[in-house]
Structures are given as C-alpha cells and as structure tokens.
Write the structure tokens for this entry.
Amino acid sequence: MELLKKRIKQDGKCFDGGILKVDSFINHQMDPILMKSIAVEFVKRFATYPVNKIITIEASGIAPAIMLGYLLEIPVVFVKKKSPKTMENMLTTTVHSFTKDRDYTVCISNDYLTPKDNVVFIDDFLANGNAALGILDLIEKAGANLIGMGFVIEKSFQEGGQILRDKNIKVESLAQIDSLDNCTIKFKE
Ligand code: 5GP
C-alpha cells in the first residue's frame, strides 16, 4: 500500500532491536484518514471471503479493526490483556509481548467468539508472531473458523510471517519491511 509506505518513510522512527515507532499516526496519535484507507485496503484483500467478525487485540489493533468492521458492517471483538472479574465463559491463552519482553495472559469471552464465527484477525504489527499465535489458540478453543490475518505493518526480517504462512494461514500485510538496519527503513519490493 503505497500511501502507507510513504507515511512510514516520512514519519516512522527506528529504534534499537528492530523496533519501528509509528506513534505519530498509528499507535498513539492516530490519523483517521489514513486508518480509513488502511481499512479500505483490508476490505479489498478479504472481500471475497464470508467474514462475519473481526478480532483484534488491545490496544493498537483496535483502530484499524473498528474501521474495517465499520466498512464491512460486522462486529469487532478485542482480546483483553487484563481479565475482568465479570467476564463470562472466559477463554485464555498466554502471549509473549515483543515490545515488553514478558508473558501475559489474554482473554476473550466465548460469548463473542463462537463456532458460528468466520473471523479475520487484525493487528498493527506482525513481528515474531506471538500475538497472532495466541489469537489462533483462542480461535481454536472457541471452535471458530479463521479466514485470515491482516497486519498494517509486517517486519519481514522477523519470523512471524513465515510461521503463519507455513500454517497455510492467509496473511495480508499492507507494508512489509525487509530491514531496519542502520536506522534505514527498507521495504520489501
Ligand atoms: P509479535 O507478537 O508478532 O511478536 O509482535 C506483534 C505485537 O508487538 C504487535 O501487537 C505490536 O503491538 C508489537 N510490536 C511488534 N513490533 C513492533 C514494532 O516494531 N513497533 C511497535 N510500535 N510495536 C511492535
């Protein structure tokens, strides 16, 4: 997606450890016009599939997911990183956080992820794939069907994309980054 790549080049910032900061337009301050264009692109990529629910994980996946849910007119459910005492029929799994380098338990109610659901998972970044694999586990526990996964940014130099594609998961990434070496953002051609 050229518009997104242009914006990443212009406003993205590299940090040590292969981290890209996009918090001026995606995951702190958000550009809703760009977010809408991102969702339109996801619609194109998943348009031919019978998706009836979007799943994401808090917090940064929520903005692109809600935009996509709005355009497709289907519900969006986000996996929570803290377990509320009031959640009924809770399903849990453990996810390793790439940015915080720790494990945490995430949860979703089986009431909102059911065997009737054909879901697309949306997130801001794909790095090592831990969040995505956790979501896959929740989808399996819920008996739901995964249609595919959409990421705003995939860091192709990390292993997540390969792991998911090896599982025959349909992975759609709107900007694929090959390298952040020497603080230079190089996109996959
Ligand atoms: P994974 O689970 O694929 O290893 O990492 C994906 C999660 O970690 C995403 O939900 C995202 O929030 C965070 N993440 C991974 N890499 C980056 C990065 O380079 N920049 C930012 N801002 N977040 C990242």
Notes: Strands lie at 13-15, 19-21, 53-57, 76-79, 90-97, 102-109, 118-126, 145-155, 171-179, 186-187.
